[in-house]
Amino acid sequence: MEQQGFRARIDGELRDLAETVVLDRRKNHTIEAVIDRIILKPGVEKRLEASVGKALQMASGLVLIAASTSASAVKEEQLFSSSMACPDCGLDVPKLEPRSFSFNSAFGACPDCHGLGRCMISIRRR
After folding, report:
1. Would you say the pTM of this structure is higher than 0.85?
2. Which of 27, 24, 19 is nearest to 2 (CA)?
3. Which domain holds residue 39?
């Protein structure tokens, strides 16, 4: 990875791969490749697309995005998967289709309101 210019986050600490990294072989470590640091502004779309694509390729369909509002702010991280499955529990998501979002289709309708937008309660009088 050093030849490709990446840094790594090892056990939560950002490390430069040009320096020697010594790890305890009897301990499990979390090693994450840092692909790119991008300030979001107009014109960086292609670079962002290439970086996310490279991350998905290197990590078999997983990418962790860390976003911050400033250099000193705590970063919010989100894990994304291109495999249509939750990376934590393995629950898979069916293929998304237009009918999945249509309130006119029973396939996409809410099971509680049946696509009406609100639940009707029927009261029987005796």
Report:
1. no
2. 19
3. 2-85
